[in-house]
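Researcher: I'd like a structural prediction for the single chain below. Treat it as a standalone chain; there are no partners to consider.
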Amino acid sequence: MFSERTSVGLDVHARTTTAWALDGETGEVYSERLDAETHNVLVWVATLPQPAAVAYEAGPTGFALARALDGMGVRCVVAAPSKMERPAGDRIKTDKRDAKRLAKLLRMDELPEVRVPTLAEEAARDLVRGRDDVRRDLARARNRVSKLLLRQGRVWRGGSGWTYIHHEWLRKQRFTDTDTQFAFDNGLEEVLTLETMRDRFDARITTTAARPEWSPVVLRLACLRGIDTLSALGLAVEVGDWQRFTGATIGACLGLVPSEHSSGPNRTLGPITKTGNSHARRLLVEASWQHYKPYRGPGATLRRRMELTPRHVRLRADLGNRRLHQRWENFLVRKKNTNVAAVAVARELAGWCWSLAVMED
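Model: Treating it as a single chain, here is the predicted structure.
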């Protein structure tokens, strides 16, 4: 329950912060438009009647302000904006009104709170998401080069693309028009640069995943098919504290459960909610497709990963791999759409990841 004397709402932007505070004892209201520098916000909060509690919405400004407030002994709640209700008739939105609303909801303990990641978690998230950005950029760059060649009537027919042999073929391409040659050379150079960046990210992720704070969870998650070191570290840093969930709730937190609109006797289920962490959701859906293939025991790569974990973890992971493939078979027998089946398997995969992450040694 709210126990502080002053409740403070902050509407935080990149360059300015609008603050609104209410003294619960005297009813006095404090309002100020501040520079967004963290130091200025801390100084203003320190002038208010203490003890105080502060709330602001999660967004692109990150969690530096929350950590600074906690460091000075002020409780800070970072609210989830997607879960905050707004009256349908409220058609006026200003920074001051938003700050006032946050302060009042904080006093009523009605703010849906998000977990503030640790500095180590946030740094690892930056690393994993940076690698994902490079992956997307590389896919777009490769697509541009391929389509340029296609417009010139040149198609690679030597097997899989973007292999060493394919790269050798690309380097030999020459065009009579100098402008076309210039565009092709720059496009190929971009591909090679991004591939180098991706390899550097992969090496760094492997090093980070071996650190003591990540290694136990990464090794356990990597015992499941479709989850390698990159995916395991991504799930570990995006979920953070696995103890917050249960096997039944983690799928809902990651937006892998159906949306619902029910009233009276009518119950209507729709597409998945897609709430929560989109990065973790993508990793799980991609991994779920690996369970489509028959499973007759761990292969050589998966066996090497399993050997790094305790026996009870290996047994649990093997049971999960068998169960997830069986789920795929059940969906195929029922002639379910494969995309729908992949999401359903991903939801169950999230539960198996949770069960491995929270297992005791």
